[in-house]
UniProtKB/TrEMBL annotation:
Chief location: cytoplasm
GO molecular function, one term: threonine-type endopeptidase activity
Domain of life: Eukaryota
Catalytic activity: Cleavage of peptide bonds with very broad specificity
Protein name per Swiss-Prot or TrEMBL: Proteasome subunit beta
CDD domains: proteasome_beta_type_7
């Protein structure tokens, strides 16, 4: 006995543009009221650093994105400058890679010429002078951390050449969430991981994060952990007033 059920409909392949008309209507209504439709947020990465009594800790995720596409899940964003100095890079991955490679070569030549280990402030000065010459066309946001004869230091260098020196720093698309954790829990190292829950281009697990500890003895690259932090349920709603 045959059933009266309809045969399954074949699914159409390719892209679906069924919401195009809806978006056009919404955008038209918003423009009549004097508003504009929200743009898609382009996110990148998150890097962080903190100074403790024995040295500096640098942390970064390993996910590289191309607009809204994950291009590489294992991109090393902590770059070698000198045995006692490392640098985290956010922004354009190629710019950060080439910039830190050039700086590592310059620092090595400087050490061979002077016969002394490099200072963190010297590396920061050369980085900010080089980036300032290009007026932001090199898309590299850098966190320089290291330990030298004067102690432990942590600097942030922006693409236009400005810099800051602080006990803890965050940069990148998830910097807002990470810095809030640093300011609230300075003694706990949760911010390197916590940013991933508020940034859709950074991982949701410590498994994809790289952490390096710089001490006067030697740098130590910590193994990747696999512990995930539970997502926090927000009880309050945000109201935007115009």
């Amino acid at each position: 006995m045959l059933h009266n059920s309809r045969p399954p409909q074949p699914q159409s392949a390719g892209f679906s543009f069924e919401n195009t008309r809806r978006n056009a209507v919404l955008e038209g209504n918003l423009s009549e009221l004097g508003y504009s439709s929200p743009k898609a947020r382009k996110t990148g990465t998150t890097i962080a650093g903190i100074v403790f009594k024995d040295g500096v800790i640098l942390g970064a995720d390993t996910r590289a994105t191309d607009d809204m596409v994950v291009a590489d899940k294992n991109c090393m964003k902590i770059h070698y400058i000198a045995p006692n100095i490392y640098c985290c890079g956010a922004g354009v991955a190629a710019d950060a890679e080439v910039t830190t490679q050039m700086m590592s070569s310059n620092v090595e030549l400087h050490s061979l010429s002077t016969g002394r280990p490099p200072l963190v402030v010297m590396v920061t000065r050369q980085l900010k002078q080089m980036l300032f010459r290009y007026q932001g066309h090199i898309g590299s946001s850098l966190i320089v951390g290291g330990v030298d004869v004067t102690g432990a230091h942590l600097y942030s260098v922006y693409p236009h050449g400005s810099y800051d020196k602080l006990p803890f720093l965050t940069m990148g698309s998830g910097a807002g969430a990470a810095i809030s954790i640093f300011e609230d829990r300075y003694q706990n190292m949760h911010a390197i991981v916590q940013h991933s829950h508020y940034d859709n281009s950074t991982p949701e697990s410590v498994e994809y994060a790289c952490i390096i500890v710089l001490t006067p003895a030697c740098p130590e690259l910590l193994p990747r952990a696999t512990t995930e932090l539970p997502r926090v349920t927000k009880l309050l709603c945000y109201i935007t007033r115009v």
